[in-house]
Design a protein that fits this description.
globular, about 45% helix, disordered N terminus, two-stranded antiparallel sheet
Length: about 400
């Protein structure tokens, strides 16, 4: 890639920085008008959605909004004993109403896994708004590998939670985990435990996303092109997962250490790993990092072709027409890791009776809040999340 490691880190800091103004400022006026025309349960869901988004974006709730919408949360670390083996997890329970319906939230590709601060903030906010939230750890996803093993962990964790709650539970998957949750929902072993699925910033077809990393283009269902420069993060994850296809066998161990430190955002470890490379390996490292070069894109394309069947197995696309679990789809308009065209594809392929709602929102990038959304776009996101909350609590 043309950018240096420092530039990539700065880009990630930019993506995850908090909004410069309140994300949902001014919406209380709209909600006041909404009160006049809607039932209290619907109004309360919208108020809770508003509170949820404010908490996730780091805003302090007003005393009146907090009193109406939230309650204290009890957090417990535990290990699930599932049919697929032990799964490290964390449970967020509304302290005053511990018997509330459940939702299991699966983290995206990040080295902190279930300890990622944004995920923890979101899980706590969801629980404060009246849901029992489980956040299992996905070891492969945590280590930047999108795998069939994660589909099984998603399914087994959901089955465990449904048994724990004595009823089906809602499922929320972030980034690639959202697509894998949809794949799990197609499995008759896991499907009965799932009440509904919310996929946020997720893939419809892995092969299409992989091609986007090389071309910065993704075709929408209507034939138009989504043109958005792809983040270097995507190709680097592909290289890390299949490094043996990019460098000689003798260089895999030192170069994997370098890529791992880079993806894990460990600057000191990355510098140490780079120092340990010989001259040939340093050339290879620079080639891997230059994801915009013709040579690197050629290697990425060759890797895609070798893993077509594997990618198909990790794509919900083939399963969507027969899916019976209710589905909500949410995607950031400016997402340059998994492009928003992926959600458009999934929305076009799901049966009308299955798709509850789909939203492409400029308020989001990949999984982060944007800086200056319009009030109307904020309202659409609040309304979408209110629909999700009502479905999860029904």
């Amino acid at each position: 890639m043309a950018a240096t490691a420092e530039a990539i880190r700065a880009s990630r800091a930019e993506l995850s920085s908090p909004p410069r103004r309140p994300v949902v400022a001014g919406l209380l006026l709209l909600l006041f008008g909404f009160v006049l025309a809607a039932s209290w349960s619907s109004v309360r869901a919208h108020l809770q959605a508003l509170a949820l988004l404010q908490m996730v974006s780091g805003e302090k709730l007003s005393t009146s909004l907090a009193r109406i919408t939230t309650e204290p949360v009890t957090v417990t670390d535990l290990t699930l004993q599932t049919t697929g083996g032990p799964v490290r997890s964390r449970l967020y329970t509304p302290s005053l109403h511990p018997q509330t319906p459940g939702i299991v939230v699966f983290h995206g590709v990040h080295y902190l896994g279930m300890d990622e601060p944004r995920l923890m903030a979101f899980a706590r906010a969801m629980s404060a708004c009246g849901l029992t939230v489980l956040t299992p750890e996905l070891p492969d996803i945590k280590d930047y590998r999108v795998s069939e093993g994660s589909v099984k962990v998603i399914g087994a964790s959901t089955v465990w939670f449904a048994q724990h709650m004595h009823q089906p539970v809602s499922v929320m998957g972030l980034s690639f985990s959202g697509g894998l949750a949809l794949v799990a929902a197609a499995d008759p072993v896991f499907r009965p435990s799932m009440k509904m699925i919310l996929a946020v910033g997720s893939q419809g077809a892995m092969e299409r996303v992989a091609a986007y990393y090389r071309t910065s283009e993704d075709t929408r269902p209507d034939g138009t092109q989504e043109l958005l420069p792809a983040h270097e993060y995507g190709p680097l994850v592909m290289e890390y997962e299949h490094l043996e296809e990019f460098v000689p066998k003798r260089d895999i161990v030192p170069l994997r250490a370098l890529l791992k430190a880079h993806l894990y955002e460990d600057k000191d470890a990355e510098a140490t790993a780079m120092t340990a490379l010989n001259s040939t390996q340093k050339v290879e490292a620079l080639q891997l990092m230059d994801t915009s070069s013709i040579a690197t894109r050629s290697m990425l394309r060759a890797a895609e072709l070798r893993h077509v069947d594997e990618m198909n197995g990790l794509s919900p696309e083939k399963h969507l027409p027969g899916l019976t679990v209710p589905v909500f789809l949410l995607h950031g308009e400016a997402d340059n890791i998994i492009p928003a065209a992926e959600t458009l594809w999934m929305a076009s392929e799901l049966r009308a009776a299955t798709l509850r709602a789909a939203l492409i929102s400029p308020v989001l990038s990949h999984l982060d809040m944007a800086r200056s959304p319009s009030m109307w776009d904020e309202w659409k996101l609040v309304h979408f999340m209110a629909l999700v909350l009502r479905e999860a609590k029904s």
